[in-house]
Amino acid sequence: MALPPLDSPQWKSPFRAFAWGVSSVASTVLTLVLFATYLGIGALAHDSQFSLGWVLGSTLLVWAGPAQIILISTLGSGATAVQAAIAVTVSAIRLFPMVVSVLPLMKTPKTRRRHLVLATHFIAVTLWVECYRLLPKVPRERRIAFTHGLGCGLVTVCMIATTFGYALAAKLPPLFAAAILLLTPLAFLLSTARNCRQISDVLALVLGLSLFPLVSMLHTGVDILISGVTAGSMAYGVHWWRERARA
Amino acid sequence: MSEFFGSPHALLVLVLAGFLPNEIWRMAGLWFGAGVDEGSEVLVWVRAVATAILAGVIAQILVQPPGALAGVPDWLRYGAVAAGFAMFMLTRRSIFAGVVSGEIILLAGKWWLG
């Protein structure tokens, strides 16, 4: 499925742009990855004795796979709400640089912060990667409507998957659980690799992968943050040095 | 309806321990990010940090595997991801081909190990 050309009259209406966003859900294999991941989250919630409404609420409100798995497994194992909140917030720090880096693609000089609130809520790995791929093919003034469509489409698919997973929990074979858990690193790795535009992105990916196992020996509780900021800054340093050498 | 949602207390915990601690980082990103221009140099750094943090999440799942993935031997986990990456490169960056090959290696390996 291809989007209409940038100058097509189809982009005149924000509702059409929203609809193109919804139908773009079918254009990425990451939708299948999300579906399988949320089957797993639904099953996990069932096995940890949460209600279906509760886990659907978590998909809608939290909308980040790793945070939901942490929330369900910490609360399910009898931890306090404060312990769960700390674990969730540490896992969610990654959302901050994602939002900062993707929002500039969506705004026009007339955009106000409040226009971006819903689009910001939808940002997680999948939307981050897909925005880099798809937004250049969408006229700038329709990008927020398009992102709303894409986000609503993905959330709907995941609510359905959460419900299926919840209903099927007892019938899923153990091998399936291992396969679902491998989907996240595999899909994250390949989609981030495809997302690399500059030498700094490639270096950040390679350095981030190799630095984490070293930093994790420190057991600081924020290992991912330390290795991420260090590797990302080193990668940026190389980019800065190359630009300077060229000038 | 109360059976569908469970106790009000559980919903309160969902908002306080799940929604708010997660959403605060998105809204902080909105606060800072809305003022940044697309061509700005600081975005190159922010994107590198976002990519490297994501790389850390990937490495963590592989090095310290959760749940059922812990039952898969190290060599098979790394081998499956390496095979997926190799197929991704061979197919001119097809995520689909990469993900499917990685999963096939994992399932075949588990089946072979019994």
Task: Outline the secondary-structure elements.
The complex is a heterodimer of chains A (247) and B (114).
Chain A: H1 14-23, H2 30-47, H3 52-61, H4 65-76, H5 81-92, H6 95-106, H7 117-122, H8 125-134, H9 143-168, H10 174-195, H11 199-215, H12 223-246
Helix pairs in contact in A: 1-9, 2-3, 2-4, 2-9, 2-10, 3-9, 4-5, 6-8, 8-10, 11-12
Chain B: H1 2-5, H2 8-33, H3 41-63, H4 74-90, H5 95-113
Polypeptide structure, described:
The complex is a heterodimer of chains A (247) and B (114). In chain A, 72% of the residues lie in helices and 0% in strands. Chain A has twelve helices and no strands. Chain A has helices spanning 14-23, 30-47, 52-61, 65-76, 81-92, 95-106, 117-122, 125-134, 143-168, 174-195, 199-215, 223-246. Chain B has three domains: 1-35; 37-66; 72-114. In chain B, α4 (74-90) packs antiparallel against α5. With 114 residues, chain B is mostly helical. The mean pLDDT of chain B is 91. The interface between A and B is large, with 102 and 78 residues.
For the structure shown, list the relevant keywords.
heterodimer; A: 247 residues; mainly alpha; 12 helices; B: 114 residues
Order of helices and strands of chain B: HHHHH
Low-confidence stretches of chain B: none
- Give Rg of chain B in angstroms: 20 Å
Largest sheet of chain B: none
Rg on CA atoms of chain A, Å: 19 Å
Based on the structure, what is the oligomeric state of the protein chains? heterodimer
Largest sheet of chain A, described in full? none
Strand element count of chain A: 0
**Mean residue pLDDT of chain B:** 91
Number of strands of chain B: 0
How far is the first residue's CA from the last residue's CA of chain A? Answer: 42 Å
- Beta-strand content bin of chain A: under 5%
Q: Report the portion of residues of chain B in β strands.
A: under 5%
Helical content of chain B, roughly?
over 70%
Structural class of chain A: mainly alpha
Mean pLDDT of chain A, rounded to whole units?
92
Unreliable spans of chain A:
none
Please give the domain count of chain A: 2
Number of domains of chain B: 3
Helix-strand makeup class of chain B: mainly alpha
The count of helical stretches of chain B stands at 5
